[in-house]
């Protein structure tokens, strides 16, 4: 949700409490979610340009995450900003200090181009192992914000992009779906593709694509990417305009591309690519709702970010807001 006025703080609080309730988080967790939303949204309203707050379940379940993103001016002294009582706006200075105390995890990156703050809450007994970043956003209506800006509650309620992350005997497996078009029919196609994936995500990737193709024959069809992280290598198979980007010590570079086609209409010859697992590398999947040139400019490349911040970074700074968008960033 866009945070461009103090009234958005109340909306953020309401939405965070509702999400925690929908996820059946027990005890005081819904109120903690509300406090986190209040602090993050208030900071955006007071200090940031083009602020937005993303609220969603954790990609692997077991809790929720709140991520604040903006376009600057950045935090001059991050260490001081995380201390209780710190303020540059003449307030009591609870802010990020309160967020750090209440959240189970807090991840922050700030530079003059903007700040990203991610806070999580997990249910008792749950733990966010090997955190990954993921986000899925619907296309903006014609009168919404320009690319790079945040969008408000006028967003389409339906999204034709979707993702799922499942644990399998051979390692975590990711499905990323970009159904053709927008709106309810696209969302139904994406949901169908994920339902087939969920029937048995441990199947060989090419078999999963074949089953999704059969299930989507009476739908709009979709581009689909599948990624599995094994002990020593990753497997990747895709059809259509979905992208894999490898992010390591050097500049990001594209992985193997999926052949042209539409799952549900024209299925090309399927190939499962094998990629060596490189310690410290992040494998990033995204649909064409993210500008495909994001990692080629500026010359210095994007900032080095953990996977949990990379997804909202792309969503906030490199969106094509007229299209649905989905991103999954998973560490190797």
Automatic annotation (TrEMBL):
Gene3D superfamilies: Histidine kinase-like ATPase, C-terminal domain (3.30.565.10), PPM-type phosphatase domain (3.60.40.10)
Domain Histidine kinase/HSP90-like ATPase residue range list: 8-120
Keyword Repeat assigned: no
InterPro entries on file: HATPase_C_sf, HATPase_dom, PPM-type-like_dom_sf, Ptase_RsbX
Keyword field contains Lipoprotein: no
GO molecular function terms noted in the UniProt entry: kinase activity
UniProtKB keywords: Kinase, Transferase
Official protein name in the record: Anti-sigma regulatory factor (Ser/Thr protein kinase)
Record organism: Streptomyces zhaozhouensis
Lineage: Bacteria, Bacillati, Actinomycetota, Actinomycetes, Kitasatosporales
């Amino acid at each position: 949700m866009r945070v461009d006025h103090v009234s958005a703080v109340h909306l953020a609080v309401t939405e965070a409490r509702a999400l925690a309730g929908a996820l059946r988080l027990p005890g005081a967790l819904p109120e903690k979610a509300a406090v986190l939303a209040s602090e993050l949204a208030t900071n955006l309203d007071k200090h940031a340009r083009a602020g937005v707050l993303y609220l969603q379940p954790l990609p692997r379940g077991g809790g929720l995450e709140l991520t604040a993103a903006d376009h600057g001016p950045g935090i001059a002294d991050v260490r001081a900003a995380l201390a209780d009582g710190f303020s540059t706006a003449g307030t009591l200075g609870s802010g990020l200090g309160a967020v750090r105390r209440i959240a189970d995890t807090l991840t922050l990156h700030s530079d003059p181009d903007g700040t990203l703050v991610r806070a999580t809450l997990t249910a008792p007994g749950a733990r966010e192992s090997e955190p990954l970043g993921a986000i899925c956003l619907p296309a903006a209506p014609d009168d919404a914000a320009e690319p790079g800006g945040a969008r408000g509650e006028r967003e389409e309620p339906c999204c034709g992009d979707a993702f799922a992350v499942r644990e399998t005997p051979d390692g975590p497996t990711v499905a990323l779906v970009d159904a053709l078009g927008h709106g309810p029919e696209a969302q139904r196609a994406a949901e169908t593709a994920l339902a087939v994936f969920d029937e048995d995500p441990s199947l060989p990737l090419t078999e999963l694509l074949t089953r999704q193709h059969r299930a989507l024959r009476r739908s709009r069809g979709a581009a689909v990417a599948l990624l599995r992280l094994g002990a020593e290598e990753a497997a990747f198979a895709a059809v259509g305009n979905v992208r894999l980007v490898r992010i390591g010590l050097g500049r990001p570079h594209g992985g193997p591309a999926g052949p042209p086609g539409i799952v549900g209409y024209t299925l090309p010859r399927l190939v499962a690519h094998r990629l060596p697992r490189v310690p410290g590398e992040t494998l990033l999947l995204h649909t064409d709702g993210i500008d495909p040139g994001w990692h080629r400019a500026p010359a210095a490349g994007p900032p080095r970010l953990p996977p949990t911040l990379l997804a909202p970074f792309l969503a906030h700074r490199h969106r094509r807001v007229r299209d649905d968008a989905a991103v999954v960033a998973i560490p190797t």
